Amino acid sequence: MSPTVLVVGANRGLGLQFALQYLKKGFNVCGTFRKESADEARELLESGAKTFNLDLADETSIFKASASFGDQPLDLLINCAADGPGPRKCFDNTTEEFMHKFRVSAVGPFLVTKAFHSQIKKSESPFVVNITSSMGFLTDNKTGGDISYRTSKAALNMITVDLARELAPGNISCVAMSPGWVKTKMSGFTGHMEAPEAVERMIKVIDGLKPGTDTATSYHRDGQRLPWTVDAQTRTFPSDV
């Protein structure tokens, strides 16, 4: 029986590439998108993947998507959706900006994992992969800026570790993965790599993860394990994160 992957935020960018490339690998692919993003989801809808409406800012929609998914085992959950960087200047950020990013980029992936927990634990060796950013690592902050985005990703990193610890008795592994600077709509189509290649590299890393061993960890798209904190002087992150 083919494994099943659920990609949250599969209407464009990295999420769409995860869905398309896992389809080519023979997975049963499920992808989510917000109703407001339906126009962007055309390629996903025509791909053959099973699709669900899911809004990370709407807890009800998350649990409705889980109910629609049914009780089949979920082998791989990829939490890819997020609210992007900005405002750049520190004091241009508002309470609303902070709370929306925190809700979408941190609490959202947590609620998805919670909503799909019953399906995840039916898999023999499930993985939860949270797409993070180097901007969420405390001592890697050399420049400041994008404070609300940085804090939401820092929260996601902690959520990843906490889920990994609490779900370990059920043989559920949780990791975070940084795609690097990729040419997507979120980055303004700037970056060092196109989305298809970045996702191809991340899938290669995911394929090599060992259940129960590679958990509560974070990785760069090229497979380098990223420490949750880095030496501010020596900087051990890849140059392109």
From TrEMBL:
Signal peptide: none annotated. Gene3D superfamilies: NAD(P)-binding Rossmann-like Domain. InterPro entries: NAD(P)-bd_dom_sf (IPR036291), SDR_enzymes (IPR052184), SDR_fam (IPR002347). GO terms for molecular function: oxidoreductase activity, acting on the CH-OH group of donors, NAD or NADP as acceptor. Pfam families: adh_short. This is Short chain dehydrogenase. The lineage of its organism: Eukaryota, Fungi, Dikarya, Ascomycota, Pezizomycotina.
